[in-house]
Q: What sequence folds into this?
């Protein structure tokens, strides 16, 4: 499934959310974002990183796709691969476009 997201500017971005905190339900999400930014990933508590427990922005890189692990892949891998919790924040100055492709296998016939 392909979505096309358009995030309007908001005069008080700290009072709103572009997309609420969630993880995707699919296997892998392939995301194209424009150059505005606003996608944040929650770094889990159980990793050996300085930013653990924090929301970290995934900066847009021209021509790059973001690959997100979804819940289905977490379940299939018995938790070896963790789905990524994320949010989208808006800005007061620039609207934003993103195009996620949610991949899921067809059910067997
Ligand atoms: O706009 C984005 O960067 C992410 C959108 C998203 O998380 C979603 O559609 O599930
Ligand atoms: Fe998402």
A:
């Amino acid at each position: 499934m392909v979505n096309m997201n358009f995030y309007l500017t908001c005069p008080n971005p700290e009072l709103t959310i572009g997309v609420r905190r969630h993880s995707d339900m699919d296997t892998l999400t392939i995301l194209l974002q424009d150059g505005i930014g606003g996608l944040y990933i929650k770094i889990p508590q159980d990793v050996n990183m300085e930013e653990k427990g924090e929301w970290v922005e995934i900066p847009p890189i021209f021509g790059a796709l973001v690959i997100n692990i979804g819940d289905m892949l977490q379940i299939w891998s018995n938790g070896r691969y963790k789905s990524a919790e994320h949010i989208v924040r808006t800005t007061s100055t620039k609207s934003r476009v993103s195009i996620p492709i949610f991949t899921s296998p067809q059910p067997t016939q």
